[in-house]
Amino acid sequence: MTVLVAGLVLFLAVHSLRIVAPEMRARVMAERGKNAWLLPYTAVSLAGFALIVWGYGLARMDPGFVYAPPLALRHVALLVLLPVFPLLIAAYVPSRIRAAVGHPMLVATILWALAHLMANGTLADVILFGGFLVWAVIDWRSALARPASSSAKVPAGWVGDAGAVLGGLVIYGVFVAGLHEWLIGVSPL
């Protein structure tokens, strides 16, 4: 469990810098260039992610159960996950979805974490998905308090929305059909 927690701390700490020190990113990039920020940020993020993956795998070998979710919640979780991939795509594509939601990546993370907490009750699941849920809610609230960026403007047409929804649903289908089991070792069905 120590490896999982260490990974979460690294990953979420570096992703929380905009919450606790919003001016730091802009200052480092202005003084030393974009790569002076991106390279260490990426390195710490990747190290944290690698520790999360490794630590979660280790923790799953000796699961301690916090709660036993009813089987019906697995089906509800699949419904809660339905908008996750469209929201993830909408975070990077100019769309009405992005303009309406404001921060689709954070909303997707919240839904992803909630769905996994509905379907899983081991200590590792509660730490992993609970950690991401708490972080995403805090970051979302922080993001809503920041001035809106120009990227939140509503684009003309529906191409971005159609791409986000259709692409997201295709990725969702691929995950449910077998990619989740192949990557994680657990079928969502």
UniProtKB/TrEMBL annotation:
Membrane topology, as annotated: Multi-pass membrane protein
The UniProt record lists the keyword NAD: no
Chain ranges of the NnrU domain: 3-188
Domain of life, source organism: Bacteria
Keywords in alphabetical order: Membrane, Transmembrane, Transmembrane helix
Transmembrane segments annotated in the record for this chain: 38-59, 71-93, 105-138, 158-179
Any Pfam family: NnrU
Main location: membrane
InterPro entries cross-referenced by the UniProt entry: NnrU_dom (IPR009915)
Places the protein is found: Membrane
Protein name: NnrU family protein
Organism: Nitratireductor aquimarinus
